[in-house]
Every structure is written in C-alpha cells, then in structure tokens.
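User: I'm curious whether this sequence folds into something compact or stays loose and floppy. Could you predict its structure so I can see for myself?
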Amino acid sequence: MVKQVITREPFNLQRETFVDKIVEIIENRILSGELQPKDKLSETTLAKEFHVSRGPAREALLRLEEMDLVQKSHAGRVVRGFSIEEFRENYELKLIIEAYCCMQGALKATTRDISKIQNLLDEIAKILHPKHTTRRKKLNNQFHDALVTCSNNKKLTEIYRLQTKKVYWGRFFTYDEPQRPEKSYKDHLEIFSAFVKKDGEKVRHLVEIHRREVMDIVSSKLQVLFHSESK
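Assistant: Here's the prediction. I'll summarize afterward.
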C-alpha cells in the first residue's frame, strides 16, 4: 500500500499579515455600514485592491465566512445580514461552553498552564493604552483560550472556537468604550485568582458575568445602529 504524501503550503509570515489586514479592513467596512448586506465580494476584486495574489484574498474571504460576516450565494460571495437576536444566541452558546470549560480548566490546570496564563496577563498589563488595541485584543483572546484549553475537553473546545469565530466581529463595538481595557483587565485578574485557587464554581460565575457584560454592550450598540438605520 502506497502511503499518500500530503504537501502543505509553507507558512509565510508576509502572507499571513496580508490576510489578517484584509480581514480587518473588510470587517470594519461591513460593521461601519460602508458595505451593506448583499454587496458582492470576490477574490479577484480584493486581490486587485490590495495588490496580492488570489490566495490571500481567498483565505480572507473564508475567514470572513467563518465569522458569519460573508456568505455564499448564487451570485458568489456577498455581505451577510445579521441581527441582534442571532448575535445573542451565538454568544450565549459560547458563554455557556466557555464558562463550563473554564470551571473544568481550573481543576485540571498544571503549573505550566498557570505560568503561561500569568505571562499573558503580565503582557496585557503593559498595553492597556488605546494605541495598543489590536495587540491587546489578541492577548485577551489568548487568555480566554488558555483557560478553556485547560479543560482538556477537545469536543467542547472545538465548539467554543467555532462560536468564537461567529461572534468575534462583536469586538468592533467595544472599541470606543474608554474604560473597557482597565475593566477587562481587572476582570481577568479576578478570574485568574479564582482559577489558581482551583475554585471552579467561582471561575464559572466570574466568566459568565464578564462575557455577559460584553454581550450586553454589543447588543446595545447594535440596537442603536439598527434603530438609526430604520429612520
């Protein structure tokens, strides 16, 4: 029996940077209203605009699909419409799974896990200024992902990651909350303190409160946005 050899495209930092940037720009255009539901998006158009090959453009569109901001239609890929109800449903599922996994993670975390999470918090503490928003949000996500991963529940972690992609765009609506970076960091410290003490129930409770605050902020912003558009 001949074993099939699978060739993988080598990791290219420049390519990944291009993809990240394209996703960020198109995401902002959609959420700011510059791009409207049903507006068409294509690999060719993006490749031409951003001066890249169709590969990075295709990958950017796939990521936007995973985020539920773009969908395929008979006419190709188009901007997807979304609602407050849909956002809350997706976020609530993510919240429930994340809180449970964090509770389990608190009971199963190793000394190495704790050290890794502590390092993330130390890095976040250095970049609370608004000019570091992009970097801080990535570290915040890594913090939450690390807590969930400690649960060692592959199935739930997979669902959590899928739901995270579906609601990730919601962070756009927390950018202009001036007190959010400090508040979020304090929440993280409190969650981590309970996590280190292996107080799973408290971790679960704190994560639910922390995430529900974000859900409510985004829902309120969407309510205002949809109301203004209906006038």
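Summary: DSSP finds nine helices and three strands in the chain. Residues 8 and 55 are 14 Å apart (CA to CA).
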